[in-house]
Specification:
alpha/beta, Rossmann fold, two-stranded antiparallel sheet, 8 helices, 9 strands
Length: 210
């Protein structure tokens, strides 16, 4: 469901800015470029060396699909992204693995470099981050412990976080997750994500644009 939402938001961006480019941070084996193959734009994949090697066993770069071997936190990759075109940057399942200071610095730097900028990313609530940081970790099953995710933010805190980090000239949209196909479990997720008293402690998807 997350990928569907990101795909949809990229289409919105490209409809508004046909000359724009798309930058995917920490893309891994994501196949978004194939699902959105009709969009005539340049795609940039930014990822660690081992991730790029794994990706290129299945997905080759090309004239419009650039692979840049670099950590998202090593800003050298930014020099290869045009600043004279609208830029859409996506980060699926990534920012929660960073420290808050790293997220702030990355967003601030991007805001300073790109006049026309959209950033789409997902976040986890504070309680999930704290759970993963506990001494025993977060054991989702008997044999699986969730990786440490240092950065979490509650939904009501997102607008002020963006304003303090990127400035007041950015619009912030809490996209949330779409409703799952009808089922008891999907209904419970919908309640968690949408009922005001509960949704502040639910994960969500954020779009920041200028």
């Amino acid at each position: 469901m997350r990928s569907i939402t990101f795909d949809s938001e990229i289409r919105v961006f490209m409809k508004k800015y046909p000359s724009g480019v798309v930058v995917n941070l920490g893309e891994g084996l994501e196949t978004q470029r194939f699902r959105l193959a009709d969009l005539q734009t340049t795609w940039y994949t930014i990822d660690l060396p081992e991730s790029i090697r794994a990706r290129e066993q299945f997905i080759s770069p090309g004239d419009r699909w650039k692979h840049i071997t670099c950590s998202a936190l090593d800003y050298a990759w930014m020099d290869q992204i045009p600043t004279d075109r609208p830029v859409c940057i996506t980060a699926q399942g990534l920012f929660m693995y960073f420290q808050e200071s790293e997220v702030r610095d990355l967003l601030k730097t991007l805001a300073e470099r790109h006049p026309i900028l959209t950033i789409i990313f997902d976040v986890i609530p504070n309680w999930v981050a704290q759970k993963t940081l506990s001494s025993d970790g977060w054991k989702k099953t008997r044999d699986y412990v969730t990786p440490v995710m240092p950065w979490g933010i509650n939904r009501k805190e997102i607008p002020s976080f963006i304003e303090k980090t990127m400035g007041r000239d950015f619009d912030v949209t809490d996209i949330a997750y779409p409703r799952y196909p009808l089922a008891i479990r999907s209904f419970l997720f919908w309640v968690w994500f949408n009922v005001p008293v509960l949704k502040q402690w639910a994960p969500t998807i954020v779009k920041v644009e200028r």
